[in-house]
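User: Here's a protein and a ligand (magnesium ion). What would the complex look like?
Assistant: Let me lay out the input and then the predicted complex.
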Amino acid sequence: ALAPKKGVNEMAENINGMLDDIQEVLLSEEKLHEIVERIGAQISEDYKDKKLLMVSILKGSVVFMADLMRAITIPCRIDFMAVSSYGSGTKTSGVVKIIKDLDIPLEGYDLLIVEDILDSGMTLSYILDILKSRGPRSIQICTLFDKPERRQADVKAAYVGTQVPDAFIVGYGLDYDEKYRNLPFVGVLKPEVYGG
Ligand code: IMP
Ligand code: MG
């Protein structure tokens, strides 16, 4: 027999535990859906005569990837890559270590890197160099969120969901300390939660 579903009250308590840490909702589920549908339609048009391979950078882009691939109406393949920044602290060093590499050789594919948020751009700039060296036919970036004023590396995304202010945001895949990824909307985290 199937395990009984969690009670509604129990679920509400769980989400309330997270909601207490949110300062404001930046993007509702409906707004996120609109953004994803728009990008999906654009990609479907742009890649209709290409051999699309979407590469999601774990873990932040998983929720976006899952929705985006279903908003794409042309054949596509997917793969995943996990990287981690070298060094400690909250600042990205720009040098990344590959934790999980792609399963698919890239020759002949039109690669679309799917990211949650483009911040300094250091991580993506490094990943881009590695993947370019493997000889895909083309390579572009699709990011759900962009914080352009924070950019350090010269990285440009072909597809951007929306620009966001320079605040720490969580939900819809984005985390703080591995938490809040399962919130269905995107919110600004209260600074006191991360000691800001
Ligand atoms: P970058 O190398 O500085 O561009 O790092 C981008 C990565 O930092 C993203 O893939 C996120 O994992 C993380 N990140 C940057 N800003 C935020 C944020 O506001 N909320 C959650 N994660 C963030
Ligand atoms: Mg992250």
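Summary: Strands lie at 22-27, 52-58, 77-85, 96-100, 110-118, 138-146, 159-163, 169-170, 186-189.
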